[in-house]
Amino acid sequence: MEIVVTGGLGYIGSHTVVELQNEGFDVVIIDDLSNSSIDVLEGIESITGMKPAFEKIDLREKSKVQDFFSKHQDLEGVIHFAASKAVGESVEKPLLYYENNVGTLIYVLQELIKKERANFIFSSSRTVYGRLDNKPMSEDLPLQPAESPYGNTKKIGEDILEDTCKAHPNLSTISLRYFNPVGAHPSAHIGELPLGEPQNLVPYITQTAMGIREELKVFGGDWPTKDGTCVRDYIHVVDLAKAHVQALKRLLDAQNDSNYEYFNLGTGEGNTVLEVIESFERVSSKKLRYRIVDRRPGDDAMAYADTKKANNVLGWKAQSTLDEAIKSAWEWEQKIRSN
Questions:
Q1: Which CATH number applies to 201-231+269-305+324-333: 2.60.200.30, 1.10.10.60, 3.30.470.20, 3.90.25.10?
Q2: Domain limits of the chain?
Q3: Are 163 and 189 in contact (CB under 8 A)?
Q4: Can you give the pTM of this predicted structure?
Q5: Which residues are catalytic, by number?
Q6: Confidence (pLDDT) at 135
Q7: Is 2-182+235-268+307-319 in CATH node 3.40.605.10?
Q8: Strands 231-232 and 271-272
Q9: Tens-digit pLDDT profile for residues 304-315
């Protein structure tokens, strides 16, 4: 059963490929290597014993997308990770983000709707909810205007999918709204490796601990939270990857009530930035150099998931603790720097 994973050499994509292969799926990866490394293929093979098929394709090139799908007539599903994802960069380069994140989605869907039956999983984000402090974000909430071009590409992507599913009942789609993926595979063969300065908290912590960054800046110590720092829902990337397998099985078994569904993926709990730092210091036995500075524009106090829908409908629940996730991230950081 052939499954195509776009952006499959990226952080979440590579972990999902591992879980797909562990479940017996044949995987074909599409990646343009703009924000990933071909070495990840070896990492995947080291874990699963199988090297997935790989094609280097820039999905912005429509003719290459058409050629790929004409060669892969028997594919059973597509999991679409390929996208640019840095909020700050999206503000500086909005047209790049709309081309990369919206244009490529359209090209892939244009090929899928030609099939008699097609299954599609979309990598979405909690940013579609906008700001909502002091209570968990549930799927019942109306989507809010985006606060960045990146966030808007995810909201537009979901709108495109909903409209396309209405017009094409042969297409079944699930959008998965991620909260804050962290950690690495417990084997330390694959993990998060940002190019340049990290945009996310955990790789900044591990790089600071390795001496690559001078210090970690904590943006704001006066938020209305238990210790004054922002609260986020940190989910282990392996748990996140397993949710994609569950969603795919739901599509393949035609269990969905409609041909467009969406689910939150998080732990259902929030942790402050200081709690994440304390977790790192606990699992690493290292003291982290950090400093609390002024709030960062665009941040909000709290963002954590209501996960009941994913728990009950998908039959999925995050299993790993924060300490387990942070420990795996630290082991991955140590390994890649030693190499």
A1: 3.90.25.10
A2: 2-182+235-268+307-319, 201-231+269-305+324-333
A3: no
A4: 0.95
A5: 150
A6: 76
A7: no
A8: antiparallel
A9: 999 999 999 999
